[in-house]
Amino acid sequence: MKVLMFGWEFPPHIAGGLGTACYGMVKGLAHHNVDVLFVMPSASGDEDNSVARIINASDVEAADIACDHKEFLGKVNFLRIGSNMVPYVDPRQFSEMVEKQQISQVEEFKVNFKQKYKFSGKYGANLMEEVARYALVGGTIALQNEFDVIHAHDWLTYLAGIAAKRLTGKPLVIHVHATEYDRSGENVNTEVYRLEKMGMEAADKIIAVSNLTRNTVIKKYGISPDKVVTVHNAVDFSGRDNIEITRGVPEKVVTFLGRITFQKGPEYFIEAAYKVLQRCNDVRFVMAGSGDLLNRSIRRVAKLGIADKFHFTGFLRGADVQKMFAYSDVYVMPSVSEPFGISPLEAMRTGVPSIISKQSGVAEVLHHSIKVDFWDIDAMADAIYALLKYPALSQMTSRCGLDEVNALKWNNAAQKVKDVYLSTLK
Fold first, then answer.
1. Domain 2-234+413-424 carries which CATH code?
2. pTM for this entry
3. What is the DSSP letter of 225?
């Protein structure tokens, strides 16, 4: 079986858990004799080509195929994504504006037809432009290659998956690692929501990373339950043994590692840290990551007067992440909304007892981590204190947690994904 897979990032160049999950899944699929053509916007050449053939979208000419632009656009049926929020415009004016915009976009596409587009592959200001162009290039790639199934990861690649399906007629599987409701709460970006819903409606099957996410897809996007399958993530442990570190501080270390954004709950971690430090002083707290709440978090730590016991490392990747886990005595994931959450698995694999929010998908598969509501900073502080001060609890949680995560293999998750592929071919 051969799969055309659209992603946005792939190790070693990642910005979060999406690229890591894609890599683990691709390795697992290779174990089950599934060949993957993995398309990404901007490849650097140092990606692992032993588990998949990496296709760099920046090297592909848009619509380098035997058809003209009218035929291509007629099949794809969409161009650049524009905002649907236009203030002070009545319906008639809006319709005229959209018509003019479509005409101009067709003319622009004619100029760029059979030209390459250099993608940044980042999450910058022109992200929507890149998403749309990635779809056009994705359609071209689909026509250039042989495959059985299309697999698109998260909303950034859904349009590319749709284009590939429309041009080839092959079944489309989309993978929901997070939804706009996870990222933004109820204040959703309507454009992103529209793209997510479009992808879900066009897909033959939808894979959700947790039952929590599956329920969101069904209830918030109006998708039939029969179409949505849960496949929990796993974690890749290869090359992570025998990490040697030298600790420069005598105190215990409690770590938060993730994007410093509302979704990840960093401010609850800070408040819990303050409460713990009122009861014991032989502990240091570390916040590893970056994000839009970083400066506010730094100010809050300073205002609470705990800056001498609280450290910000900035964004970590690769070996530095594993070293951070090795330094840690307790790991905390206080996410407000977490579709899955791979980081606790990585921490527990290093032998670090973990505290996770009940509002996370990974809580469905972990039984030897301590679970608290993200907003309950008293319970979070109590759990941290208990793991620091009661060695028997810490050792039991560490030992049982290690056994538990060792059973969560990407090979097992990949077999379930392959079964989803096969169900679309019947």
1. 3.40.50.2000
2. 0.79
3. G
